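User: My advisor asked me to double-check a structure prediction for Transport permease protein before group meeting. I don't want to rely on an old file, so could you generate it fresh from this sequence?
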Amino acid sequence: MIAHTGLVLGRWMRASYRQPALIAFTLVQPAIWLLLFGQLFQGVVRLPGFGDSSYIAFLTPGIVMMTALMTSGWSGTSFVQDMERGVMDRMLASPVSRGGLMAGQLLSNATTTVIQTILVFAIGIAAGARYDGGLVGYLVTVVASMLVGTAFGSLSNAVALLTRQQEALIGISQFVSLPLTFMSSIMIDPTVAPHWVNVAARFNPVDWATIAARQSLAATPDWSSVWRHCGYLLAFTLIVGWLSTRAFRTYQRSV
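Assistant: Sure, here is a fresh prediction for Transport permease protein from the sequence you gave:
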């Protein structure tokens, strides 16, 4: 399985490198979000709950998670394209590991997520964001973003395997990602949001990742909160991964 995962990963990475426009969009998009939202909402730091940090410092970890969510939401489109071209059927007729097919594609998404995370931090720091959490804080943020990407990439793959339609996948992806973004602390502190948003955020995996990242980057991190939210996120990722595997088996039985 490990060998096949590496081969599938190489396939998806080569496919990405052959699409320079896609690479440019993937890298520029988080930069636009960070700079646009950073300027648009910079005045909200005058509200209670933000402390002494600048808004760009508050926003950067949130944009990291938002980028991981949005990018992974399109993960299943590659599976749909393989189905339409008959590549998926040829893969399933070969001795390649079924787990390797899924893991290789998810690792490709994780690689993209890591690159985007580094880019967002570079832009945030250039714009004035400063963090006292050191290397550990950055590593926790990268791991949290990879878990978000893996979880919602698995969910996107499951939807693709069950619906087999680009239109349905795109619609469901938007339906899920936008509410998860705005019912979280990505752009605003939950204490100044309506009560129902605070309640919803407690069950939001994207908010778990954002809280873990911000806490780990703080000068005095609340490590119990960091590990608790990372644990929630890991459990969610494992559950969604299991559901994605079940969807793969359902697709296999139907072809």
